[in-house]
Amino acid sequence: MDTLILGLPVAYYIAMVAKVLVAFVFVLLTVAYATYAERKIIGHMQVRLGPMRTGWHGLLQPIADGVKLFFKEEIVPSQASKFAFLIAPLVALIPAFISFAVIPFGDSVTIGGYTVPLQIAAYYDEAGKQVFDINVGVLYILAMASLGVYGIVLAGWASNSKYSLLGGLRSAAQMISYELAAGLAIISVFMLSESLSLHKIVADQAGGAWYAFKQPFAFIIFFICSLAEINRTPFDLPEAETELVSGFCTEYSSMKYAMFFMAEYANMITVCAVTTTLFLGGWHGPAFLPGWFWFIAKVYFLIFLCMWIRATYPRYRYDQLMRLGWKVFLPLTLVNVMATGLWVMFISK
Amino acid sequence: MIMPLIKGLQITISHMFKKPVTLQYPTERPDVKPGFRGLHALNVSHDKAKCVACYLCPTVCPAKCITVEAGEDANHDKYAAKYEIDMLRCIFCGYCVEACPVDAIRMTEQFELANYSRADFTYTKERLLEKK
Q1: What processes does the entry annotate via GO biological process terms (chain A) (predicted)?
Q2: Residue A240 pLDDT class (50, 70, 90 cuts)
Q3: Residue B84's domain is classified under what CATH number?
Q4: For residue range B39-57, what is the model confidence (pLDDT) as tens digits?
Q5: A152 is a domain residue
Q6: Domain count, chain A
Q7: By residue range, what is the domain housing residue A181?
Q8: Is residue B26 part of a domain?
Q9: Which of B12, B21, B24 sits opposite A312 (nearest CB)?
Q10: Residue B65, annotated ligand binder?
Q11: Which residue among A37, A132, A134, A240 is least packed, with the fewest CB closer than 10 Å?
């Protein structure tokens, strides 16, 4: 225990690997079963049953889907730009998963005398009795969220098909428009927490003082803008099955298509986790259950909300989408930032 | 602007707790109602088909799927030597049943008519005769 590698105990590295594995496998499983849950929930909302045949009530459906996609034929269009075509699904998938590196999914736990904070990019300083995590966590998440769009644009361009290109371009325009409003919505949280560290932001929300109550507008706008950023209904214009035949992934098949699909769901989980962290008090909840349980429960509730919204609203038209982003959400968030700033300056101090 | 959105969410969540209308088909059987127009059957009386080969059914058939050829039996009675229905053309309108003056044809509740070859869709007199 006393051996140090680069100034850190061995237990730190073991805990780090364990956290990465657990978080990654958990997110992967959630992605798989989010597809199942979506089909089930939307099915029941449309008074249908959803998948029923593979396993008990269709529980093995994600596995069957995965196996099917895995054994499908790989098709690369002859006119496609090969390298970009192959790398685009990875560019979409990886940023979706690595955002989890900074999301705190629980408070610290002590195992065998060594305290492990339940956040991948963090460590517990035994001397100072304090958790240190990456101090620009939110910036990192915003950066990764923006990286995801490259995969989609690249896929649209590399496919050399007009539908894919339109899908990719729409996606780029949409993400840029909504990222502004989402970013501005987060700024009002920074103003209150005075930190970019996600651990600190969650710690500030202890005892039910969630930022969703202090910043209801920011919360709602951030969640809606996030839906737009991850291309979910009612803002799923880049894929728009009816008009663009799946948009950027028209030309994709087999595992490469599955990667886009996984990226989409992983993004949804990331966004729900970020919303939970920033606005819904992260791991805080009644003490009779551990913190990670509350975190997962909140994330799952938000995922359910995404599916509920998908079952309810029709898709926006492109001009409506742009108008909503630039003419409604952007001014609203600017006003919110102003109001929060004034409140922090003159009232709270 | 906000209220209709919330109302929409209310409607979808209320539907979630309704009983799904889905019929798990091969295991659950549909409840076939009286008057259902399924596969045809030729009625039998005194051990032979009641059909007298009057040609009213092929005449009235809008899909022209019935082929009848008349024959004469030992008692010099007219009977259908050949009675075929092409199920690939039949539209299950039931006009043949309405047109029949001797109640020789009716429609059963059988609706699973899938087959492997085109020839199997030609229902001959033997296949249409009422099963005892």
Answers
A1: aerobic respiration
A2: low
A3: 3.30.70.3270
A4: 999 988 888 888 899 999 9
A5: yes
A6: 1
A7: 75-106+134-347
A8: no
A9: B12
A10: no
A11: A132
| Residues B79 and B50 sit within 8 Å (Cβ to Cβ) | no
B22 shares contact with chain A (CB less than 8 Å): yes
Using a CB–CB cutoff of 8 Å, tell me whether B13 touches chain A: yes
Residue B84 falls inside a structural domain = yes
Average pLDDT over residues A204-214: 81
* A34-42 LR contacts (CB < 8 Å, sep 24+): A34/A265, A34/A268, A34/A269, A34/A303, A35/A61, A35/A62, A35/A65, A35/A261, A35/A265, A36/A61, A36/A62, A37/A303, A37/A304, A37/A307, A38/A307, A38/A310, A41/A304, A41/A307, A41/A308, A41/A311, A41/B16, A42/A307, A42/A310, A42/A311
Confidence category of residue B69, pLDDT binned at 50, 70, 90: very high
> Which of B12, B22, B24 lies nearest to residue A308, judging by beta carbons?
B12
What confidence score (pLDDT) does residue A303 get?
92
Selected for mutation to probe chain B from A45, A217, A304, A307 (highest B CB count within 10 Å) is: A45
**What percent of chain A has pLDDT above 90?**
6
**Structural domains counted in chain B:** 1
* Segments forming the whole domain that contains residue B46: 32-128
Q: Give residues 177 to 236 of A whose Cβ lies within 8 Å of B.
A: none
A332: pLDDT strictly greater than 60: yes
A46 close to B (CB below 8 A): yes
Peptide bond into B20 cis (omega under 30): no
Residue B51 annotated in ligand binding: yes
Residue B85 binned pLDDT confidence (cut-offs 50, 70, 90): very high
Between chain A and chain B, the number of residue pairs with CB atoms below 8 A apart is 34
Residue A292 pLDDT greater than 90, yes or no:
no
CA angle A34, A37, A38 (to 5 degrees): 85
Residue B6 covered by a domain: no
A151 domain residue, yes or no:
yes
Of B9, B21, B24, which is closest to A47 when you measure between CB atoms?
Answer: B21
In a domain, B21, yes or no: no
Q: Does residue A7 belong to any structural domain of this protein?
A: no
